[in-house]
Amino acid sequence: MPYDDSPPPTRRARPLSVAAALAAVCLTAAGCGGGQEPGEAGAASPRPGGDAATSTAPTPTGKQPEPTASTSASPSAKPLPKGPLTGRTVVIDPGHNPGNRDHTREINRQVDIGTGRKECDTTGTATNDGYAEARFTLDVSHRLRALLEAEGARVRLTHDADRPFGPCIDERARIGNEAKADAVVSVHADGSAVGNRGFHVILPAGVKGGGADTSKIVKSSADLGARIAGHFVRTTGSAPSNYIGGNTGLDTRDDLGGLNLSTVPKVFVECGNMRDPKDAALLTSASWRQKAAQGLADGITSYLKG
Question: How far is it, in rounded angstroms, from Cα 287 to Cα 306?
């Protein structure tokens, strides 16, 4: 069956308080703090998601959903409307790159993440029928950009499949830093075991070493992540992850270069598990991807207006 790729209409983002965001997560889940702890057995990889996501993806088969919004890796040249986010800068980081699969030597090159070294990037994961995470992240990022620009925000993408591979995880962080972004959101989808479902937001841990120092962004990033989690629950109807984050939808990590090297508030969002058939049915639906983008936009707007 062909993928539904029609772009649904957009709506304006709505703010939500931090307390309401956390309450939304807890009410949707079986109580905050319960369930499996991060890293507990059950995931397909020890620490799925982010720059540590699955490094191989199934060969795509059938029609691939293509991004439906306009594309530009640079800030939009068109005049922005006046809105609640006028004067704010948001960097959206679409996880991986569709070209990574053809440049495995380049993306396997080790880069400095402050506390050690790690691969430049990975291919990301895919659904069982070949819908690549890199395609998903671009589509959601385009939708998110349109929503934020409608609110008056200056938006930049770290890439738009306009380069052969990458950028590397250290460059992704640098793009947000150099833009002096008010918020950076890295869009991903996980590649875990069947039965592992739901979204989670990855927050930066307190890290200091080499070129990494997150001490100034830990608190603000946690605020951004909590607001996104609350809105994502409400807008998409998806529950917080049942395998990472103890049913809170929030997970803190110190092994992701994109977070370690950031000097501005930043989070990763794993929107669902591409290897679970029920989650995959959502992730391959254009109408659900629009909801996902709206949930992200609502959370970002709430944070920036808070």
Answer: 28
- CB contact at 8 A, 68 and 4: no
Measured between alpha carbons, how far is 245 from 34 in angstroms, rounded to an integer?
Answer: 9
Q: What is the 8-class DSSP label of residue 238?
A: P
Name the residue among 166, 186, 143 with its Cα closest to residue 96.
166
Q: Which amino acid is at 161?
A: A
SS3 (DSSP) at 126: strand
CB neighbour list of residue 178: distance below 8 Å, 6 or more residues apart: none
Question: Dmax over Cα atoms in the chain, in whole Å?
Answer: 50
List, for residues 181-212, the tens digit of each pLDDT value: 999 999 999 999 999 999 999 999 999 998 89
pTM of the predicted protein model: 0.80
- CA neighbours within 13 Å on the CB side: how many for 270? 37
Q: In the chain, what percentage of residues exceed pLDDT 70?
A: 75
